[in-house]
Amino acid sequence: MRWHQFKGNLPRFSQLLNLFKVAGGYCLTYLTKRDFHWGLPVVLMVEPSSLCNLRCPLCPAGTKELKRTEAFLSIDYFRDVLEDVGHQIKLLLLWNQGEPFLHKDLLEMIRLAKHREIYVKTSTNGHFINTEEQAGEIIESGLDEIIVSIDGADSETYRKYRLGGDFERVTRGVQLLASQKRERKSLTPIIDLQMLLTKDTEGQVEEMKGFTRNLGANILSLKTLQVTNLKEAEEFLPEDASKWRYKKTEEGLKTKSKNHKGCRRLYYSLVINSDGKVSPCCFDKFGKYSFGDLDQNGNLPGIWRGGKFKSFRTALLDNSHAFDICRNCSEGLENLYYRRFYL
User: What is the pLDDT of residue 249?
Assistant: First the structure.
């Protein structure tokens, strides 16, 4: 293992101190049911792009229903974010609604974060690793982990959900990345193949395990599907209800999450969308509950500690379903991933 790979996973003192502050604030909040919001985000999700090259039927970016400005996050804006919180965050997630690899500066974003010894993950539909050179550049960027969405073990199944996708192109890209890792004697990025569990894919679990090994990936993740209404549930959810993140009730579908007040993720994580707006979490897909941006509010710590965010957290302490985005959320969900295989 290369020294920079090992060193990059060790927390800095500032990151450890921030983690203790965040954990202490949340514990006190949990015990007293009052808002104690200390430290800065430990986890930051940054959306490089809100655009996508595919047309997946349950994705607002794919269906063009995102209802916020299609944009690429400015690299200068990203640098400002790292100046504000780069010494405190430990995990950077470079994705949200769009396809990250459409952003021409994605690898530079990764390099900037790795310079600050931040663990970096991204998630992709896999259409932009087409040459050995491209695979090598991803590895040399220092990226720690890459999720590649392949919803099906064959081309026919894959195309039923990944509308506009090219199964052979994606699988070839994974093979290129895996082979370049071996050639360069690199343990990173960890390659995680992710399959959404649908009516079409639920019977392909065993086949997908062998398929993942053959491609040279490290992990197979079987993720439960998010739907927004009964029509979508009937069309897409697996026949086997144990592979759902929902339960049927008289009122309709409800998530299988534990019933509790408040939201843990609001005490350790934050989302920045490609238009620069700050959202409470990734379930605010349309930016409805935006807390502002750096241009309006000056810096990220000011937004994190500001009145809008505090009011949002406090409202959830009184009612965990105070906002519509919280009624179809994975907070407290035990089976966001139905199963994971480490190969």
Answer: 85
